[in-house]
């Protein structure tokens, strides 16, 4: 996992979940930069997955189409997280109790949907990877996601 370190340095706050999400209008001017960073990070993430899984030719042929579908579906859910983050950023100094409650509820909905997507695609990948490689894939994804979550959390101030 030596390639994980450079991933961390790539605009930590913008790493995983940002794309052409429906961001808060106050942050709409950053969409192009976000999309470029997201593309770069996804390419690096894919390289890490490829290197760490060491797929055979047949495994690779069967794995990558499912992985690409997983990434596409994961991005749809992550776009909702971007919206939550930008809504929070726009309102955290003047956050009402009602808005705070809505953000918390929406956050848990996003997390539940992220888990559903991961579970769905791990089951599908179970048809194309041997069990140990599947478990290794889950570990790799967990490590990459954890790095991203730590970086995002470090950039978001606590509510006052």
Written account of the structure:
With 160 residues, the chain is an all-alpha fold. Helices cover 74% and strands 0% of the residues. It has 5 helices and no strands. It has helices spanning 4-9, 31-53, 57-91, 97-125, 131-155.
Number of strands: 0
Return the structural class.
mainly alpha
Averaging pLDDT over every residue, what do you get? 81
Helix content: over 70%
End-to-end C-alpha gap? 37 Å
Inertia-based shape: elongated
How much is the radius of gyration in Å?
17 Å
SSE order in H/E notation?
A: HHHHH
Biggest sheet statistics: none
Strand content: under 5%
Low-confidence stretches: 3-21
SS summary, helix count: 5
Short description:
This protein is mainly alpha-helical and 160 residues long.
Task: List the SSEs and their pairings.
Layout: H1 4-9, H2 31-53, H3 57-91, H4 97-125, H5 131-155
Helix pairs in contact: 2-5, 3-4
For this entry, give a set of tags:
160 residues; mainly alpha; elongated; disordered N terminus
């Amino acid at each position: 996992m030596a390639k994980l370190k450079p991933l961390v340095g790539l605009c930590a706050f913008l790493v995983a979940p940002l794309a052409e999400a429906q961001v808060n209008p106050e942050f709409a001017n950053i969409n192009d930069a976000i999309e470029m960073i997201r593309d770069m990070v996804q390419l690096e993430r894919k390289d890490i997955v490829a290197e760490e899984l060491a797929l055979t030719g047949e495994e690779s042929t069967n794995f990558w189409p499912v992985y690409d579908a997983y990434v596409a579906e994961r991005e749809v859910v992550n776009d909702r997280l971007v919206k939550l983050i930008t809504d929070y950023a726009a309102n955290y100094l003047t956050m009402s109790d009602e808005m705070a409650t809505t953000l918390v509820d929406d956050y848990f909905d996003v997390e539940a949907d992220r888990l559903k997507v991961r579970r769905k695609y791990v089951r599908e990948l179970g048809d194309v990877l041997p069990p140990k490689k599947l478990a290794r894939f889950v570990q790799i994804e967990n490590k990459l996601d954890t790095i991203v979550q730590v970086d995002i959390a470090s950039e978001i101030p606590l509510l006052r």
